[in-house]
Amino acid sequence: MLHLFEDALNSVESMQNSENINKLNAEFRSILTKLKHFVHTAGLVHKTRVTECYLIDSTYPDDWMQHYIDNCYQNIDPVIATARHEFLPYGWGSVGVRNKSQKNMMQEFQDIGFRSGYAVPLPVSPSMLLLVGMASNDKEINFRDRTILQIAINQYHACYMQITKGGTSKEDCSLSDRERECLLWVAQGKNTLEISSILNISDNTVKYHLKNIMQKLGAHNRIQAVVQAINLGLIHP
After folding, report:
1. What whole-number distance in Å separates Cα of residue 127 and Cα of residue 230?
2. Are 171 and 149 in contact (CB under 8 A)?
3. CB–CB of 206/195 below 8 Å?
4. How many CA atoms lie within 13 A of 44 on its CB side?
């Protein structure tokens, strides 16, 4: 146990050297490989708007994630719903399942082998939370693993805040009205062709604006740009 704890602490320490979100996610995943039986998601959750959830990283099975997204489960997920009024880490056992849709979703998740879970909500802005959720095929997550996960998640949160707010600020980054429009539609799940149709501009123009946005925000992809812009208060989806 001591050896595992020491290895996890070394991995947690290495997160401090992450220069961007991709590296931070990779370092966090390395901690989970030491625990072996966990998968996770990390995302932004709006405190009051149910449909506003933005995925940052996931090690859940690809088939499940596609099924989850196709069915808009993020809008009914009781684990996410609990984060909006819970200030402390919580397990699946304390999550309130209020309707048949939520019950079916949780049952489907258990059907693919995951029997327990643990979630940690942490603030990133007055309106947004960083929610890190873990799932395990064990009947319950023991105290040792919860302790290691809590340390790792707290460090993930600290590094995430440093990366997203340390290198860019409202003062040194601004978006044009058109760039903001394009990014807002990305936040709503629209692709390039859909955005070009909505805004009545060419798809190449949309790509041009999104490329400029990513350069300004130091983002590697569109989703990172959305997350970064929300954190900086540049857009309010």
Report:
1. 10
2. no
3. yes
4. 25
Neighbours of 195 (CB within 10 A): 23
pLDDT in tens, 158-171: 998 888 775 444 44
CA gap 125, 232 in Å, rounded:
9
The answer to whether the CB of 45 falls within 8 A of the CB of 84 is: yes
Tokens 């009051």 correspond to what residue? 48
- Cα separation, 227 vs 219, in Å, equals 9
The Cα–Cα gap between 229 and 183 comes to: 9
Query: Pick from 86, 89, 56: which is nearest to 74 by CA?
Result: 56
| 188/45 Cα distance (integer angstroms) | 14
Q: What is the pLDDT of residues 81-118, one digit of tens each?
A: 999 998 899 999 889 898 999 999 999 999 999 999 99
What secondary structure, in 3-state letters, does the chain show? CHHHHHHHHHHHHHHHHCCCHHHHHHHHHHHHHHHCCEEEEEEEEECCCCCCEEEEEECCCHHHHHHHHHCCHHHCCHHHHHHCCCCCCEEHHHCCCCCHHHHHHHHHHHHCCCCEEEEEEEECCCCEEEEEEEEECCCCCCHHHHHHHHHHHHHHHHHHHHHHHHCCCCCCCCCCHHHHHHHHHHHCCCCHHHHHHHHCCCHHHHHHHHHHHHHHHCCCCHHHHHHHHHHCCCCCC
Sheet strands side by side (includes 116-123): 53-58, 38-46, 128-136, 116-123, 90-91
Opening angle at CA 18, ends 16 and 21, nearest 5: 125
The pTM for the full model equals 0.72
